[in-house]
Amino acid sequence: MMVMKPRWVLLAFMTGVMIFICASMGVKGEGGVAMLSLVLFFESCVFPTIFTLSIRGLGRHTKRGSSWIVAAVSGGALFPSLTGLVADHKGYHIAMCVPLIGFAVAFAFPVYLNTLCAQELDGFRETKIGYHDEDGLAIGDIKHEERKASLVHEEKGVSPTEKEVSL
After folding, report:
1. Using a CB cutoff of 8 Å and minimum separation of 24, what contacts does 57-66 make?
2. What is the residue-wise DSSP string for the chain?
3. Is the C-alpha dihedral spanning 87, 19, 9, 110 positive or negative?
4. How do the pLDDT tens digits run along the chain, 167 residues long?
5. Core-most of 30, 49, 77, 159, by most CB within 10 Å?
């Protein structure tokens, strides 16, 4: 059972990242370090959630799409260097503007998901994994066996009993 939609989780965690980066820019000393630790906490589920929401519904293109998403992760190479460069010239608190700008750009994705793609994403509630028969039921599932038993009995013109359906 899904308690919260992944698109909402992504929006909440990206909001938390941006709030605590802003807070780390304003708080000095150990409080600022604590704010950066909270940024890392909120970052923890951002990439996996972006990844899974992005490959959802790609069908036979899932492998190619996932490889493009993994290859597109260049922030780990670019943003630390830029942040260090700004920190050397302007200070550490000002340097946190660099990842804040990156997260502000990335924040457009959960906003897009929650405004324009909400109905499409919510349509992927049920995943059909495994082999399915012509009726759309999973082979090996209890419902499949019950349906097969009832079809056999309908063809014969006999109504199945509880014991026969469970077999």
Report:
1. 57/120, 57/124
2. --SS-HHHHHHHHHHHHHHHHHHHHH--THHHHHHHHHHHHHHTTHHHHHHHHHHTT-GGGHHHHHHHHHHT--HHHHHHHHHHHHHHHH-HHHHTHHHHHHHHHHTHHHHHHHHTSHHHHHT------S-B-TTSPBTTSHHHHHHHHHHHHHHHT-PPPHHHHH-
3. negative
4. 367 888 999 999 999 999 999 999 999 999 999 999 999 999 999 999 999 888 888 888 989 999 998 888 876 788 889 999 999 999 999 999 999 999 999 999 999 989 988 877 776 555 555 666 666 666 666 666 777 777 776 777 665 555 455 55
5. 49
Q: Which amino acid is at 102?
A: G
Structure tokens at 138: 């999973």
Cα separation, 131 vs 40, whole angstroms: 41
Please say whether the beta carbons of 90 and 83 come within 8 A: no
Q: Are 111 and 11 in contact (CB under 8 A)?
A: yes
The amino acid that residue 110 corresponds to is: P
Residues in the chain: 167
